[in-house]
Amino acid sequence: MKKTYIYSLLLTTAFTTFTFTACSDDFVEVDPRYEISSGNYFNSEDDYYNALLGTYDILQSTYVNVILGEIASDNTHAGGESATDVIGWQQVDRMEHTPINDNLDDIWDWNFAGVQRASFIIENQDKTDFEGKEQLLAETRFLRAYFNFELVKWFGAIPMKPEGQFVLGDEAIVPRSPVSEVYAYIESDLEYAVERLAVDAPETGRVSKGAAQALLGKVYLYQDKFDEAAPMLNLVISSGKYHLYGTRQGEDYKDLFEYEAENSGESVFEIQYTGVQGAGFECLQCSEGNVMVGFSGIRNYSGPVFESGYGFNLPTEEAYNSFESGDLRRDVTVLDIEAWVSETGASYGIGNTDPVTGHTGYYNRKYLPRINDNEGDANLTQPNNYRAIRYADVLLMAAEALVRGGIDEELARDYLNQVRERAGLGEVSASGNVLLEAIYRDRRSELMGEGHRFFDLVRTGRAQGTIAGFTAPKNNIFPVPLEEIQFSQNTWEQNPDY
Q1: pTM of the predicted model, to two decimals?
Q2: Residues 328/423, Cβ–Cβ less than 8 Å
Q3: For residue 292, what are the CA distances in angstroms to 92, 121, 185, 245, 490?
Q4: Torsion over CA of 187, 191, 192 and 195, rounded to 10 degrees?
Q5: What are the tens digits of pLDDT across the range 269-285?
Q6: Which residues in the chain show pLDDT less than 70?
Q7: 438-457, pLDDT tens digit by residue?
Q8: Nearest-CA neighbor of 484 among 183, 180, 172?
Q9: Helices (H), ranges, 204-357
């Protein structure tokens, strides 16, 4: 069913010894003969390649960034069995989260684990030479930038150590760097990657030059650097490597989020998952499947197409109604469960009935679990890939930068209308703020369910008054987990108002 994958479960002793997180909090004595360190590793091409695999592997744990990013926005309710099911998600939905929140701590831990793995390679980049090392190091820099970008989006200022890994004791002496310095660090890694990555990735699932250009353009956009964002994103668009699925090849738009469309010309950077059993609930970050999909499934479902799940991440009625009349994206993005039951005779259950965080009558159809041949617990082994950067996203980011930067409204309209045409909608001919609002509306419709909405609202100053309970500037970022403040011996200050 799935294509080629480079990710494998490399959460072995070799890697758990140098990351912030592992599958257990227990400490284990490791025989020095089997401990992997820079002294006895990175002596061959295989060592570097396996370390790169281990860095890619952490991407699969970022499912939580996506589902919690949706829950934090006005797109979805937390859902679940009750109003206390996965309490950290419920708190974020209500904008009542505090520094004591295990789910926010997961985002901190798992993304820093990715930074650590990438930094271990970079720290030892000169130890052994081999053909293709420049490409490998460029991928490593991209991955470090990706993880750091997620961290700065969620938490603002973060500690940085460009020269290599964090080691025990650094938490008390390495300060949180200002956001501007974090972004400069990310830009430096991505500029390195853009210069050295191949136009065509060596294998399915590995990053290409276009992925680095797209992420760098996004990083510029998040800083309102429109004069830099627009040309960088235009490079991706003009490359001819990508297209909108359903426009050039005559495919149906409804197929965009089916398995057969994975790793297509629509996708600029895609996180790979498989249906192989790779974890349990005691170690969700170890999973080879997309855990978000099982968690988003319809509770107690029996019927065609879909598998049952836990009923989290439920689109609101307002989100469903926000689509324009005739927008083909609505029914691809959101499943109206009552209409589906009436059409198919399926049955389902309702869990959380809380009016703020509970059942809405809608599900995130893009990432609902489909009936497939996955192994083990179907809630942990869903093979749906996550399109972290889609071509439609690039077009809309470029359009936004072109308008907000006063650069080229005609080109911005062209990019916007390409996305709208694919969705079955008419062209927009507006200019100025009306055009900008149209771009914002289409970003919501195009990307709903994919974890971008909260950050789009925050970076454009529209979150307060749109997200219930949101107060700026406090909720623009999330609190640093309390245990991290404690580990730093209070060297790090908590984010304001937390």
Answers
A1: 0.92
A2: yes
A3: 16, 29, 30, 24, 34
A4: 170
A5: 999 999 887 678 888 87
A6: 1-39, 246-256, 259-260, 278
A7: 999 999 999 999 999 999 99
A8: 172
A9: 209-222, 226-238, 291-296, 317-321, 329-333, 337-344
